[in-house]
Write a structure and sequence with these properties.
Layout (H helix, E strand, L loop, with lengths): L1 H12 L16 E5 L7 E5 L4 E5 L4 E5 L4 E6 L4 E8 L4 E8 L17 E8 L8 E2 L6 E5 L1 H8 L1 E5 L2 E4 L4 E11 L8 E9 L10 E7 L1 H7 L1 E2 L15 E6 L3 E11 L4 E8 L10 E5 L5 E3 L11 E4 L8 E2 L8 E3 L4 E9 L5 E10 L3 E3 L3
Parallel strand pairs: 5-9, 17-22
Antiparallel strand pairs: 1-26, 2-3, 3-4, 4-5, 6-7, 7-8, 8-10, 10-16, 11-12, 13-14, 14-15, 15-17, 18-19, 19-20, 20-23, 21-22, 24-25, 25-26, 26-27
Length: 368
């Protein structure tokens, strides 16, 4: 009887429900950090250490939850983008582009005539001082995402006599998230890497978001240190899976991506597209348990094989209009998210105000 009464009291307190924490941890409503001339690209939350991590394109910033800077990695060769924190190995996984186009100007000048894409694997517990260098650093390793690099360089495809570069409109990679295998309600976690997608209105093969699924062991097996001025080419030959999420047109594809375990939903944050036939949402949402269907790709005339596709031309993945998230989102796993609100201060420095939101059929600012 005493044990039963004790269990009833715990359930009534809202602190436990069948092994799942219900009461929300009290957190600051926002965490503020500043960078330099480059805007924030991604954020990640580390509840165990009480830290927040920020990508300011060419620098990685580690703060506590009061915004005090605890360490930085500078002199990053390329465009450091979206980030996610893996609690299991205490590493941040971030997209890193070294490319010869408008995005790479001034960031990876060595890449003239050549472009490659990476996941940066950052051992956050080794980031213990300000001004650390990314070169030859055990705390900052990279692994090549060969599939995206291949699709970026594939071209010569044509429709109606017009030639296009870059398969599926691939401009590189950006959004990353940790989630179970698509079509499953749980199980092992994987890293998902989303393509950047050129928003070219004159082509129809760029209306799907491309997600690659990788195991963490595979990524870490190939990871190596940065050498300035050199391309590191080691990485898994193929992803475990390649998915196409039919959303319609976007401008530069998935900028940030987040999976919330309590909701079972994947959120894709984009710069919205401009093709009139689509809704052009800022954020697309789908259930991870939704099983992809093997079918051909809408608008992709040069690839007639069947792929794992979420959504369809008749029923694209839906979404919402929400102006934040494209410069950073960090899911807490309980329906709350830190979401980047970026800007430039009166000194000319870029900043990120990571504000706490909760999901309630839309993102609502949260008091704790």
């Amino acid at each position: 009887m005493k044990r039963l009464l004790f269990l009833v009291l715990i359930l009534a307190s809202g602190s436990f429900f069948l092994g799942t924490r219900v009461s929300a941890q009290v957190l600051p409503p926002e965490v503020y950090a500043e960078g330099g001339s480059h805007h924030v690209q991604g954020i990640a939350y580390d509840g165990d250490a009480g830290c927040m991590y920020f990508s300011f394109t060419t620098s990685f910033v580690k703060t506590d939850l009061q915004g005090k800077v605890l360490g930085t990695v500078e002199h990053i060769q390329g465009h450091l983008g979206a980030m996610t924190f893996n609690k299991a190995d205490r590493k941040v996984y971030a997209s890193l582009e070294c490319k010869d186009d408008v995005i790479g100007q001034g960031l990876s000048d060595f890449a003239k005539g050549r472009s490659m894409f990476y996941i940066a694997i950052i051992d956050v517990d080794k980031i213990d001082s300000i001004g650390m260098d990314s070169e030859d650093n055990e705390a900052f390793k990279i692994v090549c995402i060969r599939e995206a690099t291949k699709d970026y360089h594939l071209g010569g495809v044509g429709q109606d006599g017009k030639e296009f570069e870059h398969y599926y409109g691939c401009s590189g990679i950006d959004g990353v998230a940790i989630a179970p295998k698509l079509g499953k309600k749980g199980g092992r976690d994987y890293l998902y890497v989303a393509y950047g997608i050129y928003g070219d209105r004159t082509r129809n093969d760029n209306d799907s978001q491309v997600l690659l699924r990788y195991g963490f062991d595979d990524l870490n097996k190939y990871a190596g240190k940065v050498r300035f001025g050199e391309f590191y080419s080691e990485g898994p030959f193929k992803p475990l899976d390649k998915y196409f999420v039919y959303t319609g047109n976007t401008n530069w594809g998935v900028q940030n991506m987040a999976y919330d375990r309590s909701l079972g939903k994947m959120f894709l944050f984009v710069y919205k597209g401009s093709k009139e036939q689509f809704s052009n949402y800022d954020t697309f949402i789908f259930d991870v348990s939704r099983k992809p269907v093997k079918r051909g790709l809408p608008g992709v005339w040069y690839d007639t094989s069947r792929h794992r596709v979420v959504g369809s031309w008749e029923n694209p993945v839906s979404g919402i209009f929400f102006k934040y998230g494209s410069t950073g989102v960090a899911p807490l796993g309980d329906g709350r998210f830190y979401i980047s609100e970026n800007g430039r201060n009166d000194k000319g420095n870029q900043y990120c105000r990571a504000r706490l939101y909760r999901w309630d059929s839309g993102f609502v600012p949260s008091g704790n």
